[in-house]
Amino acid sequence: MAHRPVTAFIVFKKLPVIFMALLLPVAFAAVDVNQATEAELDGIKGLGPATSRIIIAERKKSEFKDWADFMNRVKGVKSKSASKFSAEGLRVNGESYLVGQPLVATGGAVKD
Questions:
Q1: Number of domains making up the chain
Q2: In sequence order, which residues have a C-beta less than 8 Å from that of residue 16 and are 6 or more positions away?
Q3: Model pTM greater than 0.85?
């Protein structure tokens, strides 16, 4: 009776784990609202095509300064949804939204 080498079994057993480890950073890649394409914004769970278009239209006027600015200019985005979008990887100037962070933008107070 022929035996398979143990090393081949170990390599094939670990292959799916290695593959998943390589894909993990791609799955949780951050998407910055000031650079993202419409397709990248649509990829954020909870952001639909209409909101993505609003974000891009507002961004053309001027880049978003911070989360407060983003929440002021994008209709329907408030603290709860900003928190969810941030958890899905959305960033404003590389920053994630922190619940309880000051909600005063450079241009004024946030509607809530």
A1: 1
A2: none
A3: no
The DSSP string of 47-82 is --HHHHHHHHHHHHHS---SHHHHHHHSTT--HHHH
What residues in the chain have per-residue pLDDT under 50? 19-27, 107-112
Residue 29: predicted pLDDT:
74
Assess if residue 12 is contained within a domain. no
Residue 105 β-bridge partners = 108
Tell whether 16 is covered by a domain: no
The rounded percent of the chain whose pLDDT value lies above 90 is: 61
DSSP 1-24: -----HHHHHHHHHHHHHHHHHHH
- Which range of residues forms the domain containing residue 34? 29-109
Residues of 83-96 as b/e, b for ≥16 C-beta within 10 angstroms?
A: bbbbeebbbbeeeb
Strand 31-32 relative to strand 90-91: parallel, antiparallel, unpaired? parallel
- For residue 20, is it within any domain? no
Helix (H) or strand (E) holding 41: helix 38-42
